[in-house]
Amino acid sequence: MEKREQLYEGKAKKVFATDDPELLIVSYKDDATAFNGLKKGTIVGKGVINNKMSNLLMQRLEKAGIPTHYVEELSERETLVKKVSIVPLEVIVRNIAAGSFSKRYGVEEGVVFDSPTIEFSYKNDELGDPLLDEYHALALHLATFEEIETIKKYSFTVNEQLKAFWRECGVTLVDFKLEFGRLSDGTVVLADEISPDTCRLWDSKTGEKLDKDRFRRDLGGVEDAYAEVMKRLTAHI
Ligand code: TMP
Ligand code: ASP
After folding, report:
1. pTM of this prediction exceeds 0.85
2. What is the residue with the minimal CA distance to atom 6 of ligand 2?
């Protein structure tokens, strides 16, 4: 597979063309941002961990019937993926109150929900990724009714799979963000990444935060937290 020109550089990843028009290479960086890019920093080794972790989890989800963009890990930081056009929705599934949910609704962090919640944000940096509902997404032509149904179904299955897996690793899956894309034939697949950048992961015994909240909230021990969840995952997979 021939790596060609860089197509895009995001906050945490770069995307390159390949000699196959249906395939891209993503390269994971150590750069970290929060609050819509307002806070910037580096988490040393993050790119390597997120690449590996996301690939392992996507392979597991494929086995559970969720189509993903994953094709092949090429190196420590690089992965071959199917080219998609991203559905401009950030899909957030929550099992426990935290972050913006706690703030918005005045609920203490750590309150466990009877059943998981799902919400959507419009993936648009200029607007600050505003929260929207399915009818807004339809009105804005961000996705079709059928696509939204598929995305919800996949997202809850991803939650069940990941929750069970992380539980076996002694980690509580609090919430996470997913992105989906369309292949050239219109098939909806899970895209982007699944990593401590995009999930809240708490130690099941101590409640210690093992994710990007350590960076967002200046809690220290950021690199150690990423290394710890990676260690638990590889010990178990
Ligand atoms: P929130 O509580 O800040 O809305 O975040 C919910 C989940 O989504 C949390 O696991 C972190 C993840 N997330 C992202 O992956 N990217 C983002 O830009 C934001 C705001 C949250
Ligand atoms: N990565 C996002 C940003 O920079 C936010 C986050 O993950 O908290 O805006």
Report:
1. yes
2. 34
Q: What is the pLDDT of residues 26-77, one digit of tens each?
A: 999 999 999 999 999 999 999 999 999 999 999 999 999 999 999 999 999 9
Q: Where are the alpha helices (DSSP H) in 174-221?
A: 213-216
Q: How far is the CA of 80 from the centre of ligand 2 (A)?
A: 24
Q: pLDDT (tens digit, 9 = 90+) per residue, 96-107?
A: 999 999 999 999
For residue 159, give the ligand nearest its CA.
1
Evaluate if residue 237 carries a pLDDT over 90.
no
- If you measure from the C-alpha of residue 36 to the centroid of ligand 2, how many angstroms do you get, rounded to a whole number? 5
What number does the ligand 1 atom closest to the CA of 36 have? Answer: 18
Which of 35, 39, 179, 209 has most ligand 2 atoms within 8 Å of CB, for mutation?
35
Residue 150 CB less than 6 A away from ligand 2: no
In this structure, how many other beta carbons lie within 10 angstroms of the beta carbon of residue 233?
20
> Distance (Å, rounded) from C-alpha 113 to C-alpha 107?
11
- The helix/strand/coil state of 105 is helix
In the block, tokens 């899970």 appear at 190
